[in-house]
Design brief:
- Helices cover 28% and strands 22% of the residues.
- It is α/β, with parallel strands linked by helices and 241 residues long.
Length: 241
């Protein structure tokens, strides 16, 4: 018999940027008190990235065992966890172990994983399935990189078929070309996931993105506007919020 706790020891260590509490700023859990676990390192370098401190040449703020991170998360006691980065899934089996132990906490009702679309989700989706009831709290929020990001060619397209109705597919739109590209992606790769469109504030006015959504009705009119509440509540450059 394969014991998941043995397969995924909580003594493994990973590099981290920060662990903090706030309200979730975007997506389906926007507004809910949430514990953020930000893992260090990323395999992409998006032109509009707002967390450059989460990958090289920056350095991790600390290295900790999974057991230590779970204990810190438990101190906050929120039922919602955002596992983010950088790219939180790029540490392979160690990323699986972190996700496994976070989702097994009895008070957790939602662990949403912000992933960049360039990591194969299959091992993580399989983990969710293998975990049974505990795995139902796990959701993936996949950020499909559009042309203005400079990373479109890095997208792992088989991920599209792995997303379920509990997951989210996010498009960060910096231009109208980006928006048109997203329409093509949705036409070529229909998804059961909740689809959202987020503006890059510096180049896509939110009002214009609303106009585009109303005119083109992506995902058969079921796509939603996604604004980052934390950039409205606090200074957009402020960390730990």
């Amino acid at each position: 018999m394969n014991d998941g706790a043995i397969r995924y020891p909580d003594t493994w260590e990973l590099p981290f940027v920060e662990v903090f509490e706030t309200v979730e700023g975007e997506g389906l859990m926007a507004g809910y008190p949430t514990t953020f676990v930000r893992v260090f390192h990323c395999n992409l370098r998006c032109t509009w990235c707002d967390t450059p401190y989460s990958y090289a040449p920056a350095q991790p703020e600390f290295v900790a065992s999974i057991q230590e991170i779970v204990a810190r998360v438990r101190e906050y006691g929120h039922g919602v966890i955002c596992l983010t980065g950088g790219e939180p899934l790029m540490h392979g089996e160690k990323s699986q172990a972190l996700l496994y132990h976070l989702a097994r906490q009895p008070y957790i009702r939602d662990v949403h994983v912000e992933t960049n679309g360039a990591i194969d989700l299959e091992p993580f989706v399989r983990l969710r399935q293998e975990m049974g009831e505990a795995g139902t709290s796990i959701r993936f929020i996949m950020d499909y990189k559009l042309p203005a990001s400079g990373e479109t060619v890095r997208m792992h397209l088989p991920n599209m078929a792995l997303l379920t109705e509990r997951d989210e597919l996010k498009f960060v739109v910096a231009s109208e070309e980006d928006f048109r590209h997203a329409l093509t992606v949705l036409a070529d790769y229909p998804t059961a996931a909740v689809v959202s469109f987020s503006p890059v504030w510096e180049s896509m006015p939110p009002a214009r993105l609303v106009e585009l959504l109303l005119a083109h009705r992506p995902n058969e009119g079921r796509a939603r506007l996604n604004l980052q509440l934390h950039k409205i509540i606090w200074d957009p450059q402020q960390r730990g919020v």
